[in-house]
Every structure is written in structure tokens, then in C-alpha cells.
Amino acid sequence: MTFSLSFTVAERGADVAFDVAAGETLALLGPNGSGKSTALAVTAGLVTPDTGRVELDGRVLTDVASGVQVPPHARRTALLGQEPLLFPHLDALENVAFGPRSTGTPRASARAHAQRWLDEVGVGELAARRPARLSGGQAQRVAVARALAAEPALLLLDEPLAALDVAVLPALRQTLRRVLADQTAVVVTHDPLDALLLADRVVVLTGGRVVEQGLSADVLSRPRSPFAARLAGLNLVSGTWQDGGVVDREGLVVHGLVTGDDPAAGAAAIATFRPTSVSVYQEPVTGSPRNAFDVTITEIEPLADRIRVHAGTLHADVTVQAAAELALETGLRVTFSVKATEVTVYGF
Q: Which residues have a Cβ under 8 Å from the Cβ of 153 and sit 6 or more positions away?
């Protein structure tokens, strides 16, 4: 089932367009307020856009110009959010059978269909339990089964793993990976692992606009937006290619190893490097082949056995001992230094 979406919602500052191929899972990434949930709501028919068109397998679901707005229940889409929202008075089997029953499937057939989906997501033995007797992970699996039992042409997942305990995430992530293999789906997530394991392709939204898109592995290994870089755990400096370095709008110059052909002089270029590659000094650092940036610490964040030092858009990871020896604190002027061999440069 192919899917295409284009819409504007002025009140939310959204102007978004993208396509999903048949059988493809697309991950929508972006900071809060970037338009991800609005895109799902427009697709599901819960929000009528100011302008736009939604088409699923050749069937027009929304066309503002011609006044078409198919109601949510008739769209053949299923929306699953962070909360399972199971019917509390029905057991797991009847929750999952609800979709087929609502379309006229006989009770026995609907129950058999529901049991198959409960088995598929790994909770077949819990068919007789009501939601109050299910754990969070179990309830979310039942919610996945309920969504899929309705046989949607398009499955919409709005951060389906965000509210779950970390202990149950790996198993449910693998379940989703399996059931999404042949399903046309759009997944909203903030987790790079979800994007890599569940999605074939990603679209990154910022400020209600698509700022980059591509294969999941490509976007996360060669990000072109600050959000995708943060998601991938990378520092990113974007600017223009000048005299063998990337120069940003504030004059920061970063030298590194170019992947592919050298960008043309004055062309857009990006430099990325890992926070673990950055050293922090109290005094200025000189000498090739190092990049040195005079920065002010804006935040200090504990990360397991390391400390992440934030300086605006740049970040460095240092040991706890190093942070203590340097007496790092917010507002302190320091030098971030990274070897050019640790920096990857590519055209925009």
C-alpha cells in the first residue's frame, strides 16, 4: 500500500510532505513540536489541515481543495500511541477481536483471528486476562495485536515504546521488527535504535519542515541536521568548504578527513565528530593536526562513568577524574580540541 502525505497546519507551523512505499516502514524523527504527531493526526483524520492531500493506495483520504475528508474509522489506518488504551472491561482476546467484529466478522472468526495475533506478538497465553492484570509491556503487545488484527492498510505508531520499562524494550522492539517486516507503517520515535531496527527510511522534521531524509543507516551515519546528529551521538558543524576546512556562519573552522570527493569551494559542507574524541583543556591548544575551539561551558551532564560537557552546540565526553582535575563548571572558558583525523567531512 503506497502512501503520500502533504499538508500545512498554520496554527502548528507545519508544512510537511513525504511518501511511503508499499511494505516500507518510515521513521519520523525530530524534536518536540516539530510536527511529527501532527503528521500522524492528519493521516489518521483526527486533524483537518489548512491545505493538503492524503492518499493511500490510490484512494484519496483527504483533499482540502476538493472538500474530501474521509472519517477516521473509514480510512483503514490504525494509530497506536505510548499508552495501550485497551478496553478495561474486555479481556485481551476480546480487545483484539474488537476490530474485526466492528467490520462485521462473525464472533468465532474474529476470536480465532485475535488469538492468532496474540500468539504472533508473544502473549497468546494471556488471552483471558483483562488489562488490569497485564504488565505495561504485555498491555502494549496486546495493543499492537489489536491494531494489526484490524488489518490496516497503514499502521501509525506514535512512540509506542516510550512509556515502557527498559527491561521489556528489547523483546518488544524485536516483536515490532518482525510484525512490521511486511507492513506499510510510519513510526514516530526519539530513539536511534528504533530508527535503525524498525525503519527502512527516516524523515527528520524541524520547525514543521522536512530537513533531511534517506535510508536509516545513511542519515544516522552522515547526518545533515543538528537533531539527527544529536540522535546519532555526534557533534555537527555545518558551513561552507573554504581552504580545506568547514567554516560555519560564526567563523568556526573545522578540518577533517573528507569522505568522497572534496566539496567545491564555497559549497555547503558538514563536519562531524564524536564527543569522546574531544579533549578539554584549561589553556589554549596549538599545533597541527588539531582543531581547537575556544568555548564556554553551558551545561555539565553525568553519563554513567563519564561526564558530558556541553558548550553550546558542541559536546565533549571526559572522565569523572578529568572533570574534577579541570574543575569544570558552568560558565568556565575552556578549549575543546579534536584531531583532524577524528573528524569526518562531507558535502551537504
A: 1, 56, 57, 76, 77, 184
What is the value of pTM for the model shown? Answer: 0.86
Q: Is 71:45 a contact under the CB 8 Å cutoff?
A: yes
Kindly report the backbone phi and psi dihedral angles of residue 261, in degrees, each rounded to the nearest multiple of 5, phi listed first. Answer: -75, 150
* Residue 127 · residue 121 · CB < 8 Å: no
In contact, 136 and 184? CB cutoff 8 Å: no
Percent share of the chain, pLDDT over 70: 99
Higher-pLDDT residue of 47, 161: 47
pLDDT at 289: 64
Distance CA 293, CA 78 (A): 49
Say if CB 244 and CB 254 are below 8 A apart.
no
Q: What are the tens digits of pLDDT across the range 276-300?
A: 999 999 988 776 668 999 999 999 9
Is residue 110 within 8 Å of 100, Cβ to Cβ? yes
The conformation of residue 243, written as its DSSP 8-state character, comes to T
pLDDT of residue 257 exceeding 70, the answer is yes
Contact (Cβ atoms closer than 8 angstroms) between residue 342 and residue 277: yes
Partners of 139 in the beta sheet?
none
User: CA distances (Å), 24 to each of 44, 186, 312, in order?
Assistant: 18, 8, 37
Helix (H) or strand (E) run with residue 257 in it: strand 257-258
Block residue for cell numbers 536511534 = 192
Question: Is the omega angle on the peptide bond into residue 289 within 30 degrees of 0, that is, cis?
Answer: yes
